[in-house]
Design brief:
alpha+beta
């Protein structure tokens, strides 16, 4: 089994748990719907930023944190409902060591991979057709998973302490929180992240995310722009 296949095996549980345009100018004028949700398991946390227009996927950013297997981020882009670009970057465990890896895939309008590049440490490794098919399948599974998290209102909310107030990363305004003491105890760096529900300007904490050890607000990965 190739190392890319091993990477796919480690990625798929996140997606499975719980289960050129004719008139581009008109399409881009439609409003964008954005979803920011998260999920936490025993040894891993995943955060998703998903945007769509008229139920058609546009962009998906993903950040995954694990206790022992490494962390990574992904950036997916669709056009006219078809996946056209996938980039991933992070670290993974290989032979007991954490090593950097990066993956780039680009597809034509027919869904065929016209560019592929997988790098692990300093080695360029091949990506098979079956592995590419699994990666495309995972993009669909992730969208389904995000829809379920959205229905369950598992919002990803993050913020920071400023002058004895809990501030929201989204608005940079004070945030009303159901249990501020819980967030205070989990924010040694002044930054906190949690899963919960938002209603009428109030955030109800369901789960604090200690695996996200950050010193600043997190945003959706922009790997595609960096690659271009």
């Amino acid at each position: 089994m190739s190392r890319v296949s091993l990477l796919l095996i480690s990625l798929l549980p996140f997606a499975l748990s719980g289960c050129i345009a004719g008139n581009l100018a008109d399409t881009t004028a439609l409003p964008i719907t954005t979803i920011n949700v998260a999920e936490h398991h025993a040894d891993s946390t995943a955060v998703y930023w998903y945007s769509s227009r008229q139920a058609q996927p546009e962009r998906l950013g993903e950040r995954v944190y694990t206790d022992k297997q490494g962390d990574y981020q992904s950036d997916y882009q669709w056009q006219s409902g078809k996946l056209i670009t996938l980039l991933q970057r992070g670290t993974k465990r290989v032979d007991g060591q954490l090593v950097p890896f990066s993956l780039q895939l680009r597809f034509d309008s027919q869904g065929l991979a016209v560019f592929q590049r997988y790098k692990e440490a300093e080695h360029i490794l091949p990506v098979t057709m079956s592995e590419i098919a699994l990666l495309k399948q995972r993009s669909d599974l992730l969208r389904q998973r995000i829809a379920r998290l959205d229905r369950k209102q598992q919002r990803f909310v993050q913020g920071y302490w400023q002058q004895q107030q809990l501030m929201s990363c989204a608005t940079h305004q004070p945030l009303r929180v159901s249990d501020p003491a819980l967030l205070a105890s989990s924010a040694p760096n002044g930054y906190w992240a949690a899963i919960g529900k938002e209603s009428q300007g109030r955030f109800t904490v369901q789960q604090v995310l200690p695996q996200i050890d950050s010193h600043s607000c997190l945003y959706a990965p922009k790997l595609i722009e960096l690659a271009d």
